[in-house]
Amino acid sequence: MPAPLRERLRAGPQLRLRDDDAARTPLRARDGRDKRSRHDIKQAERDATAGLTEQIARLQEMLFAQRRRKVLIVLQGMDTSGKDGLVRSLYSRLNPMGVRAVQFKAPNDVEAAHDFLWRVHQQVPVAGEIAVFNRSHYEDVLVPRVQHQIDEPECRRRLAHIRDFERMLAETGTVIVKLFLHISSDEQRKRLQARLADPEKQWKFDENDIVQRKRWDEYRQAYEEAIVATDAEHAPWYIIPADAKTHRNLLVSTLLLEILGALELAYPAPDQELARLTIS
Amino acid sequence: MPAPLRERLRAGPQLRLRDDDAARTPLRARDGRDKRSRHDIKQAERDATAGLTEQIARLQEMLFAQRRRKVLIVLQGMDTSGKDGLVRSLYSRLNPMGVRAVQFKAPNDVEAAHDFLWRVHQQVPVAGEIAVFNRSHYEDVLVPRVQHQIDEPECRRRLAHIRDFERMLAETGTVIVKLFLHISSDEQRKRLQARLADPEKQWKFDENDIVQRKRWDEYRQAYEEAIVATDAEHAPWYIIPADAKTHRNLLVSTLLLEILGALELAYPAPDQELARLTIS
């Protein structure tokens, strides 16, 4: 019996993204052992993910019915790492009334005039809700750092602010799950190239993606430091190898089911008298 | 060739909800003509809805890519009429990054201290987005009216405010679609009764539902007047017979596909030079 994904994917203080293989597929049989075609393996992973997401949906309904705990899922990753695809995979079966996807873009004037946690705090999940942050407050220790808009002491202060903020959220009932979708530079190149070539996807292309791509190593370094500095028992980071899309979704749904399953959720106990009431 | 649903379901000035059969199923063969079992008919409707929703998802992506028009879907209906179920059916295939479900509950203190459109205006869709209002500003001409918290002149003023507000939204690029999910009193009784008996659903029961139910005729009357007073070419109301759940979802997806299809959406024209760019 392998260890739970919560342990196997957890980022530790020794995290070295350079040495982490973004193409590994821990839920697949080792090379050569699985005789099915690549296509069949992917389809099986899609089906398995769908089944797990059904189970997650059941737990989500209990979470919503109890209206006690909150769940915050933070999604980070380089451009094209699959954040949107993952949100879509999750949403396909969850109840939209209890799940909220929040996309954080570059801050507007009003947001930039506040501290960087201001706009984020406004979007945290309420009791019973799951909020999925597609990018997050972590952008504020990545982009400005790589672009030298903030210096090292300011970056350290921000990381401390994030630690304090997340501890407060956890202590007030929020289950925090932070996912880093790890793709390789080569996989990103392929995905950007495919985006350019597809007339139905070219609109997603942003010239800034190429500018950022040139600073791959610096971003990877900034991610690594931010992850190590903010990984905590109450706000753990998980490193999701994300070069293989269907496997990535399967990993995340397996992991989320483990985490939600451990919360011992249940429907509120039904009232027997109410069950006997006749509606006229 | 039957007329489009946009015409067949459209509420007219002659609307009489009392005479509208909530159990009718215009997309099914007439009684006795379809030899399949009830179960098979429902499954076929689910499959057809899934197929239509895939097509809607494609148009939604184009809407999002263009970032020009906005779509506002207003869902209204008595308790248990299926607003949540419909949102869920829609969401299962749309891209959550371009669709936002907003649930309006009883106003909180701050909201109640403002005009009734204040909190609604904050949630209207942005360019490229579809917003689904699960309940809406229409609640403010229903509940307070039936409970005599506002008098007739105030109700007429509010209806005029709604007309002006929706005209402004339409003239600034919003496609408005208003759906009244019409269930019969008997169907509601069955659904509430089933909710009470099911230990996994009893938590959804609200004693207030029974209080409201006693005023069925008054609510129906208030709905009818609000719908007739605010139906307009740029903000049309559609009456969706909703006693049959799978047929209701099929009707709505067919209708939405007609409406979005008429917008002549397309992906932005690809840039040929960009398509030839090589990413390093």
List keywords for this structure.
homodimer, 280 residues, alpha/beta, Rossmann fold, five-stranded parallel beta sheet, 5 strands, 47% helix, globular
- CATH class descriptor of chain A: Alpha Beta
In CATH, the homologous superfamily of chain A goes by the name P-loop containing nucleotide triphosphate hydrolases
Count of DSSP helices of chain A? 12
User: Would you report the number of β strands of chain A?
Assistant: 5
Kindly report the spatial arrangement of strands forming the biggest sheet of chain A. 2-3-1-4-5
Strand percentage of chain A lies at 5-15%
Distance between the termini of chain A: 55 Å
Largest sheet of chain A: 5 strands, parallel
Provide structural commentary:
The structure is a homodimer of 280-residue chains. Chain A contains 12 helices and 5 strands. The first copy, chain A, has a single domain, classed as Rossmann fold (3-Layer(aba) Sandwich). The first copy, chain A, has a 5-stranded parallel β-sheet with strand order 2-3-1-4-5, sandwiched between helices. The radius of gyration of chain A is 20 Å and the shape is globular. The model of chain A has no long low-confidence stretch (mean pLDDT 95). Chain A is α/β, with parallel strands linked by helices and 280 residues long. In chain A, helix 2 (38-66) packs parallel to helix 11 and helix 3 crosses helix 11 (245-261). Chains A and B meet through helix 3 and helix 8 of A and helix 3 and helix 8 of B.
